[in-house]
Amino acid sequence: MLLTKSIMKAVVYRKYGKPEVLELADIPQPNIKAHEVLVEVHTAALNPIDCEIRKGRARIATGNKFPRIPGSDFSGKIVEKGAAVEGFEIGDEVYGMSKTLKGGSYAEYIAIPAAEIGLKPKGLAFKEAASIPLAALTALQGLRDLAEVEAGHKVFLHGASGGVGVYAIQIAKALGAHVSATCSYRNVDRLKALGADEVIDYTKGNILQNENRFHLFYDIYGNQSFGKAKHLLVPSGTYVSTIPSPQNFLQEFFSFFSRKKAKVVVVKSLTKDLDVLREMVNSGQLKSIIDKIYPMEEAREAQEYQEGRRAKGKILLEIR
Length: 320
Hints:
Blueprint: E1 7-12, E2 23-28, E3 36-45, H1 48-55, H2 59-62, E4 73-81, E5 93-97, E6 109-113, E7 117-119, H3 126-130, H4 133-146, E8 154-158, H5 163-174, E9 178-183, H6 188-194, E10 198-201, E11 214-219, H7 226-229, E12 233-241, H8 246-254, E13 261-264, H9 271-282, E14 290-295, H10 299-307, E15 314-318
Parallel strand pairs: 8-9, 8-11, 9-10, 11-12, 12-13, 14-15
Antiparallel strand pairs: 1-2, 3-4, 3-6, 3-15, 4-5, 5-7
Helix pairs in contact: 4-5
């Protein structure tokens, strides 16, 4: 006898294109493998990469298999777990991110490896938890792992008012760094409130004309190359970019032979790092910054707003 597979609602697209290709559809609920859990998604968070993949910018890697479900970040509750899963139980409230090229979080359920989720911070709502993974992991792994930021270091965060930037300020301060951050005049006070020691309004001049020298130049916005910014680094300083472009990977390769290094952060969702972020939230060192919350049915409008690059924090989809 054939078993009927459970149906779920999900935001999907059946071809690459503008936000108009997104639609709400009924599709089969995913099956899990031995090392995976099935999470009932409560909230999904948007990231710029969601829009780039939807446009087809990564089609060499994503291919032409449709329908596709966008999204990486999510929070929710485990409703099923594979036979090989340890450390998590059915009913656990969790958060995490799927691999960005895979997607899948704009849906009522997501199948995810247990190694890519963490227990949700205590006392944090699902919507706040969903806003953390990709952005905060990008900040943490760029600061701690690639640049090895420590107490007393000076860091320069370019484009610090978006999702990654607001977490990078908080994590850099938790690591004991002195933080200089750039944004437009609209967000100066907000970044100071987050803990930035110096906030530079990029609309008032060239941000690269700075007399200070930094242990890290973190190009979060993605429009300043290693070649343009390396004069701002101390002799052993590090430039980090969030943009995985061929140019940036080439700069990373060739900088291997120099004291000043160029690196590209390729974020990974790891339980141990999500646990670090959870402890930072629980201790009051890290808080979520949410801009707008859209119902699942308005995924098109949410991605249109994301593409405007004017969000003052995270954009969320309320799934349930």
